[in-house]
Amino acid sequence: MDIGLRSPTNIFGQPTDQLLFDLDAALSQWDNQSTSSPVTKIAFGHFPISFSALTTSGRSIRDVFLKHSLSAYLCGHLHTNFGRNLKRHHTSEKHRFSSKQYFQFDIREGMSTAVINDNCSARTESATEFWEWEMGDWRSARSMRILAIDSGHVSYADMDFIFGSRDVIIVPTFPLDSRFMQRSSDPFDFICQATSAAHIGTVRALVFSRYKIEYVTAKVYELHSGSFHLVLEQEMENTSGKGAMYTVAWNWRDFSDESPDRYWLQIEAVDMSGEVYLSERRPFSVNGLTAKFSWTWKEFTVMGCQWNQLYFPIMWTTLAFLFSLVLVPRTSLTFYENQFMLKLLKPKMTRRSSGGFSAVNFEFFGVELSKMYIIWSGMLLYLLYLVFFPWFTGYAVMEDHNKMYLHYKGWSTKYLANTSSMPYIGLPDVMVIVLPHLLFVVLPAFLIIAAIAAERALYLGHNIYQRAKKDGDHYKETCYTEYLCIFYWIRKILILLCLPIVWKHWKIYYEGIRG
């Protein structure tokens, strides 16, 4: 546990090549051992994959997990602040430049395809995959997860203790939740009978209770037309010698269906006082099919976006647009100054049916800004400064360390004692400062400045146009007054829009110095 960067530029996990080598070695220790059944591998870490940076050699912790096809990777970091469905299914990519390097739109994209045309002999090697399950924290959310491994299948149940303790906790272990727990190999197990009849032929659940449990019941519901209908209700038996394990035999073939969310399982437990406790109702598929389930936009933002890959594309796209906003009109004005000046002196107008006029010459937006040379030069120099010079200076590690300089590439280590050979650290953590500043401060500020310049040009051009009219036309004088009122309110609105930009700039600065 080395000393790391201070908030806010510390939101990413920074794995090293040595860490990935050690992790690979630890997960490989069973590969050469002959076992009667495959080894279930589970990893635990703090950071989600979407908030894990690449190593200096460009390797990812995700690649190690895919190599060993983990059953699950348990992580935290997000504290349930963005939703309860922070889960993601990872698979290896056939194409090197797949879009999944940057984002994944759903919790699990695509359906299981382990068996083709029911040909069990043609089954290829096991798919490289793993589930990522973010879990809530105990300190603020009072959340706890109970995870179970049942015949190689991993399942879990999340418990909230925010309102106090629980007398009974129920964890169904089979069949699995078809939304979050099915693997790509599960259809093969069903079609080719790879699993034993004892495994698939019983419903199983763990029931932990403070008091004596009188009986446990397995209930299966059929979802039809948006409502649930009870189709199976059987009492479960406590398995001798296995404590909290309850099982019941069932005719699983009755629930074979092409829909992965037609049937839903719920476990009911009754203690000695007659109190009834129910597990969460969840869909299952004995066929091993996966139910479709989508993130909310907040969940997609933190789990579906690979931010270490998206940082530079977003940043350079924004900077390219800002540079084009400043340079393209100026370049056009240089080559076509005579034409632009003619249009600025007499802007194009189109007569409305009511007799008024409305401007349709949108070239004002950038050209007039480029004519305000001092402001235009300041904007260009500011963009160049953001690219080539540091943004902030401060104590990024601790107060007794040397000051460091923040660039878009990270914190410069030039004046940091006892550092590595890396010129910058904290990449892509600095995106929490760089991207909000570019997208919510610089970009809107530049657009509003250009809009104010365009409004000024339209006002002057309209003023000149109206003065050229003959005097004494009362109707045209009334229209002229109306346009003055419109220009007045446009200017007021543009100035008011500056206030949220100033607030956002102050907020980013405050969060930076607070860290």
Automatic annotation (TrEMBL):
Xref: SUPFAM superfamilies: Metallo-dependent phosphatases
Xref: Pfam families: Ig_TMM62, TMEM62_C
Protein name, UniProt field: Calcineurin-like phosphoesterase domain-containing protein
Domain of life per record: Eukaryota
Residues covered by the TMEM62 C-terminal domain: 313-509
Record bears the keyword Transmembrane: yes
Transmembrane annotation, as ranges: 310-328, 373-397, 430-454, 486-503
Domain TMEM62 Ig-like: 165-289
Keyword line: Membrane, Transmembrane, Transmembrane helix
Originating species: Urochloa decumbens
InterPro entries from the UniProt entry: Ig_TMM62 (IPR056229), Metallo-depent_PP-like (IPR029052), TMEM62_C (IPR056230)
